[in-house]
Structure formats: C-alpha cells, structure tokens
Amino acid sequence: MFKKLFSYIIPVNIHKQNSAISKNLEITWANGELVLDSKNTNYSYGSLQRILRKGLKNIGYERILAMENILVLGVAGGSVIKTLSEEIKFKRKIIGVEIDAEIIKIANSYFHLDEIPNFEVVIDDAFEFVLKTKEKYDLIIIDIFQDTTMPNFLFEEFFQNRTCFLLKEKGIILFNTMCLSENENLRNKKYLENVNSELFIARTIPRVEDHNELIILERK
To answer: CA-CA distance, 141 to 88, in Å (whole number)?
Structure first.
C-alpha cells in the first residue's frame, strides 16, 4: 500500500525481468496503478489501456456485449483483456495469442490474468496462429509491439487479407499502431489504402497519445 501511495509522487519499480523475446520488462507502480513496461514504452495498463479503451468505446460496449468471441493478437500484461472482462463485462469467449511465455507468467502473477474464466491464452506467433485457426471472430484486436517497433508482417497485404477473412459478417478489426516517424505515418496510410472498400469500412480514431493511431476495419 505504501508503494502504491508513494507512486503518486514518483514511480516505484517492484520487478525487473529479462525475456529473450520482449527483452527488458518492468512492473512499476505509477500514479497508484500497476503497469507493465518494456525498455522504452508502456506495454500494458497505463496509457496503453487508455488507448485501447477508447477504441472499444468507439466500437460501442453494447455491440461488444452481443458478440460471441473475441481474438486478441498480442496479450502482454492483458490490460485489454481486463477492460473487456471487468469494465465491459464481456462473458463470452476471449482468445489471446502471445508469443512470449515469460510475459504471460508476469501477467498471471501481477495482474491475475489466469483468474478470468472466459479467457484462454495460446502461446504462439500471431502470424502462425492466423494461418492455422479455423474459427471466425466477431472482433479481432491487434496489439503487437517489440518495444517501440512493430513487426513488418502486420502491415503486409497477406496478413491484412487473412485477418479480414477471419471476421464474421459485421465483424471488426481494432488495430493499435505506433507512429514515431513520417515513414510510419505513410505506412499506416498505405495500409488503409489497401483495404477492400467494397467489403470493409476503414477509419482511424483521433489519437489518444501522440504516437498511437487506432485503425478500425468493419466488415459491411
């Protein structure tokens, strides 16, 4: 409790860990809130949770509650899982795909992700998972980072088409992106231009944080 209160004055680190995939990971009390950070950016909770919460609000909580299943590509500490489960009260199936088993151990220890009964985690590469899965989803949340960079495959036409294929009728993709340069802004613009406008409505949400842009694709 003292560390939580003191964190309103200065962040208090309580755990540091190296991961072969995610590199440096830290658990910190910041402004009374427990957050998971990588070396240079917030990975879960804190600003990242605010960003994805805004995206979910834009889609509409009532609409999400009517869905049957949600796929989350990139779990990290599970802040978006907590938003779905605890704030929206979504009780149906949530599948999370995370490549880093170490980060899931942290999520279970500090954020009790394993206590959410309707959540199932799959340790796998997101690219491999979307190739293998035979399910279709009402909502796909893409939130994959390696510190401050995003894997190139996320923006390739093949991956875009495959994730769109995995949507049910009226399904939605919520894609959290980070833009730290003009090239990355252009990358996002190209991604949006490649969307099949006959099948999908594409839009972006005004930025919550300077460097994060949320992209929403909605099957017509």
So the answer is: 15
Rounded to an integer, what distance in angstroms lies between the CA atom of residue 152 and that of residue 127? 11
Tell me the two tokens of residue 1. 């409790």
Task: Note the pLDDT of residue 44.
Answer: 62
Local confidence band at 75 (pLDDT 50, 70, 90 cut-offs): very high
pTM of the predicted model, to two decimals? 0.91
Give the integer Cα–Cα distance in Å for 59 and 53: 10
Q: What is the CATH number of domain 52-219?
A: 3.40.50.150
Task: State the distance between the two ends of the chain, measured CA to CA, in whole angstroms.
Answer: 49
Domain boundaries, the chain: 52-219
Q: Which amino acid, 199? A: L
pLDDT digits (tens, 9 = 90+) for 108-154: 999 999 999 999 999 999 999 999 999 999 999 999 988 778 999 99
